[in-house]
Amino acid sequence: MNTLIRNGQIADDGWQWIDAGEAQLAARLEAGGRFVLPLAAWLTHRASLDPACAGVWLGPDDEPEAVLPWLADIPLIAIRFPVFTDGRGYSLARLLRSRHGYTGELRAVGDVLRDQLYFLQRCGFDAFQLRADQSPEEALAAFQDYSWAPLGGR
Amino acid sequence: MYLYNQTDQRLVNDRVVQFRDQMTRFLDGRLSEDDFRPLRLQNGLYVQRHAPMLRVAIPYGTLASHQLRKLADIARRYDRGYGHFTTRSNIQYNWVRLEEAPDILAELATVQMHAIQTSGNCIRNITTDQFAGVAADELFDPRPYCEIVRQWSTLAPEFLFLPRKFKIAISGGAEDRAAVRFHDIGASARVALDGRIGFEVFVGGGLGRTPMVGKTIKDFLPREELLNYFEAILRVYNRYGRRDNKYKARIKILVKDLTLEGFAKEVEDEWAWSRGGPATLTEQSFRDMEAFFTRADYAPAAADDPGYRQALQDTRAFARWVERNVAPHRQDGYAIVTLSLKKTGAPPGDATAEQMDGVADLAERFSAGEIRVSHEQNLVLPHVARKDLPALWEGARALGLATPNIGLLTDLVCCPGGDFCSLANARSIPVAAAIQQRFDNLDYQFDLGPLELNMSGCVNACGHHHIGHIGILGVDKNNEEWYQVTIGGREGAAAALGKVIGPSFAAGQIPGVIERLLEVYLEARHEGEIFIDAVERIGLEPFKARVYGGAA
């Protein structure tokens, strides 16, 4: 079970994840609901979807520039960590939050482990879809790992 | 010296608690080896040949006496009574127990020390010139900037999972004693014509498997932009550095792939967002930081002390030690003293707990309680009154730390090698010992003059063999230890990488090979010409011919 933590609490997801290369994409969208689409599919289908129901997910090598024109209306951006040691998602989060002022949900997904949560949060993530084996209780404790905060808010 | 504020102290305290919990979960089996590995590495803990190795950070190589005593205490209680000072001015303990590592970190936190980011794919310990702040030839003191960068880089949340390790060195001198062009980022002090303070910034240098000399990416970076610009470099690297092949993941490969101009443009575009922005460093922040490092309390000391003069005349051994181990200080009547960790028979860079305690005492008596660690693996007392030199020399001799060989052949740089390190292809310590024994004669060494011999047990180049005037690299051939020899490497303003002279040698041949290289130099040298300059003038061929007898 992949626990979702949102704003420091265990939360119900309410979003349907669409993988890259989803074969039944049109049918799934037709059925309705709230979706998190891979960047390419999101760009294709964005105009025909209710903006409030169309989140987007970025892989580590996606360029955030692609979503900037619509940033104010995107309810959820997920950044995927294929392995927790791939640190590109930290920079993507910083760019979206600090540079471009994104205010919606910014969710870490994939290989998301308890021991990185504090640092992910410092980079602007406010939601975390944990890897299935992670204990929700231990994960919640991770936000108190440090009483210190990085220099100058960096 | 910098003193921790509450924020710094909270960070290291919190870190100990966090790592203790991670270690407990690992030992319980709740944290897998793969998930734990990057966590323990970022706390300096390696799993080595015989036992785990713990690498403790010594930020820009500066220690207070009470910190060095703590390092001695740890060596006694948690290791086998000694430690190894490294080429990045850290200390390594080679015989710690895994489960005791959190206790050691807790001990370190009591003296404002830690092992954070001494390994792993993150920003490593910041290094500088071991004479920073006291060198006579310095433009300005680099340590306030080292500390600013240390604070920024420590647990910098965006940069904890870079493609590969990342090393930064900052130097303040006209002469580069920090090998800044062999770091991922090097910064060298510059003062503009209008008096503004800043740095020339080099990028993409490094040794290891693919050695490269760093290239100038910025002729003059104003000091207030230091973090904005470094962050821009790190972000470009974090996003675009290769992650598919660890041997091509250092920033030097990205710079090569994009070209220096292409990489610099990416950095400029990134920097444009932060330049002059809210995170720009302020004049006040520089003044606050400089106040930690300014020393106004030098007791007046005569430039020419009669007792010191007399000792120079009376005692040849003392005069020799002064010639090699004492450097000019910016303050009249003071000197900088290097204590040699290169006595023949002791592994280069190793110090026993007794020696560490002894050095801490000497520093308190003669050097305002301050010690530096040099990247050549020696210890430095930076504030010694010249009149105290005879007494200091006696004290250093009693500890076995007064070998007058700084900058000479037996002051060789050497990694722990195959005796300890699981990466090594070959042992380095026994070869270093054989070299030191062969060339132990001081008259011969003094006649040879300045000569840097660096040795690494594998291509990871912890012993900086590429930049030794003579470099020795341990290689594996069919499970046997062999040693490749290079000449012509150097650090400093004329930085160059050594060139391989030919096929490699067995360990027992190495002293003889070096002897033949030195013969060629002694025959060919001009008056006052040091080894490396002679190599540059006459080229490799005469050396090859003598070593291989035309057979190579």
At a glance:
The complex is a heterodimer of chains A (154) and B (552). Chain A has 154 residues and is α/β, with parallel strands linked by helices.
Task: Describe this entry's structure for a reader.
The complex is a heterodimer of chains A (154) and B (552). Chain A is of the alpha/beta class. Chain A is built from 5 helices and 8 strands; from the N terminus they run E-E-E-H-E-H-E-E-H-E-H-E-H. An 8-stranded mixed β-sheet of chain A has the order 2-1-8-7-6-5-4-3. In chain A, helix 4 links the parallel strand 7 and strand 8. The radius of gyration of chain A is 15 Å and the shape is globular. With 552 residues, chain B is of the alpha+beta class. Chain B contains 17 helices and 20 strands. Chain B has helices spanning 6-28, 33-41, 65-78, 101-109, 143-153, 226-240, 251-274, 283-293, 306-314, 316-325, 353-366, 389-398, 429-438, 442-448, 510-524, 531-538, 541-548, and strands at residues 45-47, 52-56, 62-64, 82-85, 91-93, 127-128, 168-171, 185-191, 197-203, 215-222, 326-328, 334-339, 350-352, 370-373, 379-385, 413-414, 453-456, 470-477, 480-487, 499-500. Classes of the chains: A alpha/beta (154), B alpha+beta (552). The A-B interface holds A 84-88, 90-92, 94, 99, 113, 115-116, 118-120, 122-123, 145-154 and B 7, 10-11, 14-15, 17-18, 22, 31, 35, 38-39, 121, 151-152, 155-163, 227, 231, 235, 238-239, 243, 273, 278-279.
